[in-house]
Amino acid sequence: MKMGRVTAASLVFVAAVPAVTWAQGGRRTPVVQVVERVRPSVVNLTARQVVAAPRRSPFDDFFGDLFPELRPPEGRTYSSQSLGTGVVISADGLIVTNEHVIEGAAEVKVRFADGREADAEVIGSDTDADLAVLRIPNRGLGYLRPAEQDDLMIGETVIAIGNPLGLESTVTVGVLSARDRTVRSPSTRRVYTDFLQTDASINPGNSGGALVDLDARLIGINTAIVGDAQGIGFAIPARRVRRVVNDLMRYGQVQPAWLGLFVRNRGEGRRGEARTAPGVEVADVFPRSPAAAAGLAEGAVLLEGNGRPIGSRDDFATLVAQLAPGDRLMLSVAGADGNHEYALRATRPPERIGEAILERSVGLRLEERGRRLVVSKVEPSSAAAEAGLEAGDAVLQVNGERITTLAEVNRVLGRDHTRSSLLLVVQRGRFAYQLPFSLGR
Prior knowledge:
- There is one protein chain.
- By secondary structure, the chain is an alpha+beta fold.
- The chain has four domains: about 40-55 and about 75-135, Thrombin, subunit H (Beta Barrel), CATH 2.40.10.10; about 155-250, Thrombin, subunit H (Beta Barrel); about 260-345, Roll (Pdz3 Domain); about 355-440, PDZ domain (Pdz3 Domain), CATH 2.30.42.10.
- It contains ten helices and 24 strands.
- The chain has a six-stranded antiparallel β-barrel. Strands 7-8-9-12-11-10 form a six-stranded antiparallel β-barrel.
- The chain starts with a helix and ends with a strand.
């Protein structure tokens, strides 16, 4: 009897061993393994800003004493800190994050998951892409290169790692909900056309963090949330991250691609044509541009670009945003006898592209007078003439940016030439007016 009890107990003990081993193996899911690999490359960023307190204005004499506790001491400076996330992307200590995380920073400190800290140098940034590149000393760091292949699948598992609300190395899991999503920034009103969308939780502080797949590839940089929504987050895709980083390292700024092609949604400005018709219509082709060299002309209907459908202006803007100067673009164009293929090679925008766009699309010429831009000529029967512009009017802003030189006009419109319209702020006398104009004739 005693021998039987011992044997039974022994059998129970032996049978329990495999169960424990199986449980441990089952708990180390693919998600756990990916997090173990990539978490050391995701860092916490603290950006310190030094801001000068404004001096008292005449309005303070009337209203300033209502809330004296909220008014900073005159002439002094104070510092504020913004918390965000970054990702180490190279062996020599390059870190990518969102531009808004480090905007205006006097210094940026990097903190690793193991507690190590380092001071970072800002190498370059681009407001339009909302990306910035930092560098820290090389200390044998682990890193994540942005994914080379653009083969993401809707519904596949993705993992977001960041520092939401200051909670370091937070991991959330979801699926890839959409690609090439168009999003309008609630703060800048700028339209972004190629975001990845995910339901992995992304909160303030996640900005600049990593979005990875189950192959531990860095597929995106988390950048935005929809404040009133749940389960909707956005990330800048790796293909754009690679391009922006390369341009910032080589040129110090992002190089926009130029095709010389302006499009409109089918049915815009035309009666009797269904707005649901496939493709977009060419509204204008600039002379001596890649589009003109390929033989494209006004009225052509674009159906696909590099094998991807073009159903709207946003689709076309997304396509151009993904191109760099020198990249090849294959366009499928509708024809009476079937679709035709056109090959284009993107270039850099012409040196005076902004001036050319204003003259061709708006009918407006500007000249510098001191520190102001003044209308020097308005073409008869042009959009500018219809809007009532006259020689001598001062142009203060283009697309929300204050401009005082022709070089600034060329920079802004070289960047924004894929938009459907531009917005000018024009001053006449004591009054300023906002005037929108369509791009493309």
